[in-house]
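Support case: zinc ion complex. Customer-provided input:
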Amino acid sequence: MQQHRFIPELSEEQIFDRQVEGLRWTVNHVWENSPFYRQRFQEAGIQPGDVKGLDDLRRLPFTTAEDLKAGYPLPLLSVPEDQVVRIHASSGTTGKRKVLAYTQRDVDTWKDMFARCYELSGMTTLDRVQICVGYGLWTAGVGFQLGCERFGAMAVPVGPGLLDIQLQLLTDLKPTVLGATASMALLLGEEVQKAGLQDKIGLKKCIFGAEAHSPKMRRKFEEALGLEDSFDVIGMTELYGPGAGLDCMAHEGTHYWADLYIIEIVDPETLEPVPDGQAGEMVVTSLCKEAAPLIRYRTRDMTRMLPGVCSCGVTMPRIDVISGRSDDMIIFRGVNIYPGQVAELLEDMPQLSSEYQVQLTRSGGLDFMTLRVERGAEADESVDEFAARELAQRIKHRVLVTSHVEIVPAGSLPRTFAKTKRVIDDRNRE
Ligand code: ZN
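Agent response - structure generated as follows:
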């Protein structure tokens, strides 16, 4: 196996030891320095000395997004303010943003995490990374850039949007790697095709993240941009930012940095750990985070642990692709539905594209679902009637709901630089 500069080669036992050590450090640190955590521990009847090993993790109380909002503007703060060198915030769709503070050591940990991701993607220091995700309060752009500089490749920090500049830089500087959301990669791919620039750009890889994507969507932007490979990067503002793990070249799951944080998978209803390998909500505990440590933080991301060792040889453990968020779930006529289920059904329908939108409406006290799906680029209108009927039947059969399917022209659904909104819930607008 090749030598790694950033990814430590740790045995299962060494990872275990680091987790025990990091957990004890974190528990002591928050007890001493965070009034929030100390109160939570006291309510749960826990003293730092009670946490001796990983088995004791289960006794600790959960932390949630609501706790972060309640602690606005500097939630979970566990260091004196003179040690805080930066804040970032996540784009709260409702109410207050979640603001997270960083010490210099936190920033350093983060850049190493992302450098590991670049390394896992097979990049070299000669690569050029065009970064077209958001800068500013968001962690996305800064994360891609910090990691890139730490790794030693060339960052081309464009930010989202600015399509003319994106295309110009892609052709002039010939970046080899694209850092983007899946939606932005798709949008750029379509623009490259429209402008006939496929032969004039030099992209080989895309590192994308921040939203659920389907294999079909991924194949589509890989093809449009002429990529050799693409990699799903995971991460969230609460846990430094993007760079918390990557699906490696073997594409057998997402390696995560288990020496820096612990993942538990729990049943989102009962909050009990699920049996190994079963799907549930990902809960994370940081092991060396100083300014805003996380203890059993409920991410709402749904995934499962993957057993065994990856064929790439990297010993860091793996989770499965994040299938969606537990709060993305919609309840339609009493049935729990995840948008990802629709994406899955589109996988083997070549006459349809990966792009869809679900609209929920209410009329006369009843809920209705309209599903708009783009026609595949190669298909013509003659397939619409059959494809719509076929998809409606599949949804009835697999998701157990009745929907009205409309096939719309390729490229007609809204495109976005960030995350595509798949569900429009108009049920309360009756
Ligand atoms: Zn691997």
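The longest strand covers residues 352-363.

Case will auto-close in a few days if no follow-up is received.
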